[in-house]
Design goal:
Shape of chain B: globular
CATH architecture of the largest domain in chain B: Sandwich
CATH superfamily of chain A: Outer membrane protein transport protein (OMPP1/FadL/TodX)
CATH superfamily of the largest domain in chain B: Purple acid phosphatase-like, N-terminal
Oligomer: heterodimer
Distance between the termini of chain A: 52 Å
Strand content of chain A: over 45%
Order of helices and strands of chain A: HHEEEEEEEEEEEEEEEEH
Distance between the termini of chain B: 88 Å
Number of domains of chain B: 2
CATH class of chain A: Mainly Beta
Largest sheet of chain B: 5 strands, mixed
Helix content of chain A: 10-25%
Number of helices of chain A: 3
Radius of gyration of chain B: 27 Å
Number of strands of chain A: 16
CATH topology of chain A: Porin
CATH architecture of chain A: Beta Barrel
CATH topology of the largest domain in chain B: Immunoglobulin-like
């Protein structure tokens, strides 16, 4: 209990917000379809994707886990992530990369002077935003896990590039029917430095989430302090359909910031869990005039490599 | 054998008739004498040949209540008999306009030329200007979205004012965007999408890049 208190205190001290222009993190719109379907609840994934949420949740990885997520927003912004985690005797190690790209953005210039000035397209450029994470998780106790990630941020807009790094840390406590997740993101409060000698501050975030399991129903809740902007809350529910044991339906309510304004939204989703393979889909309404909805897909695979290969090879040798 | 061929020929004739008859009535239904169309003011081309269509210049054409110019007007020369059928040879005074052509050729509101913002990329402290031309006056709305498809700004421009003015005399609409436009200093670097709309219909869209 003292460990928990100390951890909470350290996290709270480190997440006192700093003031300045904030960097827009690519992970803000969600890191997996499952998370989005539950209203952007973070910290309760059981796959390698936990590296983007609460690294302490990597404790759910049994041996090897691979996860992927993709979506395209406004038919222009292609988002994809990939993560892999391996459990070892020394703890669980993970790697994840999250990237978003937009292409064919016009670079403009002018022709003529005065009233006859015309805008011209001189060429096109691309946009790329990437977060690369290295993670580590271990458990102090069967019920108490902690994790940490090193985050490398990079962004390219035409000829301007940006780089920066920071760390996330989290703890997760599991009881028989419930779990508590506590995550602090960008603990160092570092700046992202642009090649035009400007900076944006990485937003310090602290997330506290809870999960309660009641038979085939899972209830989720979360409060998130989002940098300078304020607090946003989320709630989610998941339920197994009795006649389709592999299928799970999910719904969520979320608050999120658009610039400095707090907005609300609802989400829906489906999860198909077939043993080690899980396929997820999330849906939410979109503000965008041409597409009234957003769709997200993610999948995860739990591989039992050590169990599959080692015993078999031994048996073959014996025979 | 003869009976068999006769049946085949009969079947062929019936098939041709079933295709041909509806197309004739379609042409009659969609034709109208030029002089019968209210408000139409244009000159009939002198060299219009019988049973041929000719696209005529649209600058001088105004049809009824449609105040804007039209995209195209196709006039077809037909002879019209006493009961209104469009058959036989054409004469200069019996020109018919295809109704359907007029209805569909009234110029819809649209952008003329490129929709661009300059500079791009840009810093918010310096701002950027979105420029576009419209083919006629209209009430215009500009919506700006962040890369996650969240709407961050919506501005409206009245019919005939800057933002909603047609390109008569080559007028170009210029919309300036600066930090003050967003009502917050915290607009992060990234790509933003803008759309130009009229009554919810997208007329044009573009991408702009904000750098810090």
């Amino acid at each position: 209990m003292n460990t928990l208190k100390s951890t909470l205190l350290v996290l709270l001290i480190l997440t006192i917000p700093s003031y300045g222009a904030e960097y827009l993190m690519l992970t803000e719109a969600g890191t997996s379809a499952k998370m989005i379907a539950l209203g952007n609840i973070e910290g309760f994934d059981n796959s390698a994707n936990s590296i983007f949420e609460n690294p302490a949740s990597l404790s759910s990885v049994k041996n090897t886990s691979i996860a992927m997520y993709t979506t395209t927003l406004i038919n222009e912004f292609n988002i994809v992530n990939f993560s892999i985690a391996q459990k070892t005797k020394m703890g669980t190690f993970a790697f994840g990369q999250f990237s978003g790209t937009i292409s064919d953005i016009p670079r403009t210039g002018t022709q003529g002077t005065g009233d006859s000035t015309r805008f011209l397209e001189l060429g096109q450029f691309n946009f790329k935003d990437t977060i690369t994470k290295l993670g580590y998780q271990n458990s102090i106790h069967k019920k108490f896990s902690y994790g940490i990630t090193y985050n490398q941020y990079s962004k390219n807009i035409d000829t301007i590039s940006a780089k920066g790094y920071d760390i996330d840390a989290g703890v997760k406590i599991d009881w028989e029917k419930s779990s508590l997740s506590l995550t602090a993101k960008n603990l160092l409060g570092n700046d992202i430095e642009y090649s035009n000698n400007t900076v944006e501050a990485l937003p310090r975030q602290i997330l506290v989430g809870g999960n309660y399991r009641l038979g085939c129903i899972g209830l989720f809740g979360q409060a998130k302090v989002n940098g300078e902007k304020g607090i946003q809350s989320s709630a989610g529910i998941s339920a197994h359909i009795p006649s389709f044991p592999y299928l799970k339906v999910m719904a969520g309510y979320k608050e999120y910031f658009v610039l400095d304004k707090l907005q609300q939204g609802t989400t829906l989703g489906l999860s198909l869990d077939m043993g080690p393979f899980s396929l997820n889909y999330a849906y939410e309404k979109s503000d965008y005039v041409e597409f009234d909805s957003k769709s997200y897909f993610s999948m995860s695979l739990q591989l039992n490599l050590s169990e599959e290969f080692k015993p078999k090879s031994k048996k073959r040798l014996k025979s | 054998m003869v009976k068999h061929n006769f049946k085949l020929i009969l079947l062929l004739i019936l098939t041709i008739m079933s295709v041909a008859i509806p197309s004739i009535s379609h042409a009659q239904l969609n034709s109208q004498r030029l002089s019968e169309i209210p408000g139409i003011t244009t000159e009939i081309p002198e060299d219009l040949s019988p049973n041929l269509s000719r696209e005529i210049p649209t600058e001088s054409v105004i049809i009824g209540d449609n105040k804007g110019p039209i995209d195209s007007l196709i006039i077809t020369a037909y002879d019209i008999d006493s009961i209104g059928n469009t058959e036989g040879e054409a004469s200069e005074n019996e020109l018919v306009v295809e109704n359907q052509t007029i209805t569909s050729s009234v110029a819809p509101l649209r952008m003329v030329g490129n929709l661009l913002n300059f500079p791009n990329p840009f810093q918010l402290k310096n701002g950027t200007t979105i420029r576009y031309q419209l083919n006629q006056d209209a009430a215009i709305e500009i919506r700006i979205y962040d890369q996650f498809a969240n709407e961050i700004l919506r501005e409206t421009y009245a019919f005939g004012t800057n933002g909603g003015k047609g390109n008569l005399l080559n007028f170009t609409n210029s919309i300036e965007l600066k930090r003050e436009s967003f009502n917050t200093p915290n607009v992060p670097a990234g790509i933003y999408f803008y759309t130009i709309l009229n009554e919810g219909k997208v007329l044009g869209k573009g991408k702009m890049a904000i750098v810090p």
